[in-house]
Amino acid sequence: MNDKPQLPAELDAPAGVAELWAALRPLTAARIGLPRTGASLATPALLDFRLAHARARDAVGAALDAGALQAGLSLLLAQPALVCRSAAPDRRTYLMRPDLGRQLDAGSLALLQASPSRGGLAVVFADGLSAQATQRHALPVLEALLPLLQAQGWALAPVVVLHHGRVAAGDGVARALQAEAVLVLIGERPGLSSPDSLGAYITWAPGAATSDADRNCVSNIRPQGLAPQAAAAKIAWLLNQMRVQQRSGVALKDQMNQPVQVPAE
Fold first, then answer.
1. What is the pLDDT along the chain (265 residues), one digit of tens a residue?
2. Burial level of 233, CB count in 10 A (0-12/13-18/19+)?
3. How many CB atoms are located within 10 Å of the residue 29 CB?
């Protein structure tokens, strides 16, 4: 008895299978139906994989251009951005010591505590694991978000550009600026099809005991994923609900796109 799955007759021949994969590949960025030569990947597919892997590695090691971000922020905001650093002194240490990336260094903490502008919403641009993502997409997200924040009545603390920062470093920024909430726009871990994916982590009333369970995340922000305008709308909705419900993280469910329930008369 032959238990091997049977292809439709028109796809039984190798040419038919190739046509099937050719039709499916444009629908996804995933590597599906890769051509082979015997048991090995065909050379073009292998070279494409190696190029994607190299781009991901480069994204992890790339440095953040804080000057360029400051210049862009100066066109958006009425107040200058503050450039800060985590307790990780360099990129290598940052990658090997995640705990240091969650803390601010002493100079940055003093700079934030001396800021005359405080309260409201703290926004942090952090390099994370892909400075490319922050460099390319953080400004467009904030540009789309600003009018939504203004409509909701949010005051904005000084925006912080953070070198070698992880998500939890935003908690220290918010406490130093006495902010109600913090939004961390940070480069996500690069994938083989997305070396420049930006994440947005939002936390209400962050404190010393805040954990990842207390955060809401909007991920895969990039033109090929979630567009900056759509991400900004989601972030604004979450921030508004945080202020209304006085909570964030697992206690705040994302119901932005759910239909409104009309009470029965």
1. 555 555 444 444 456 777 888 888 888 878 888 888 888 888 888 888 899 889 888 888 888 999 999 999 999 998 889 999 999 999 999 999 999 999 999 999 999 999 988 889 999 999 999 999 999 999 999 999 999 999 999 999 999 999 999 999 999 999 999 999 999 999 999 888 888 999 999 999 999 899 999 999 999 999 989 999 999 999 999 999 999 999 999 999 888 875 544 445 4
2. middle
3. 14
CB atoms within 10 A of CB 126: 29
Task: Look up residue 45 and give its amino acid.
Answer: A
**pTM (predicted TM-score):** 0.84
For residue 215, list its beta bridge partners: 203
DSSP secondary structure of the chain: ---SPPPPGGGSSHHHHHHHHHHHGGG-SS--S--EETTEE-HHHHHHHHHHHHHHHHHHHPPP-HHHHHHHHHHH-SS--EEEEBS--SHHHHHH-HHHHTSB-HHHHHHHHT-S--SSEEEEEE-TT-HHHHHHHHHHHHHHHHHHHHHHT--BPPPEEEET--TTHHHHHHHHTT-SEEEEEEEPPP-SS-TT-EEEEEEES--TT--GGGEEEEEEESTTSB-HHHHHHHHHHHHHHHHHHT--GGGS---TTSPPPPPP-
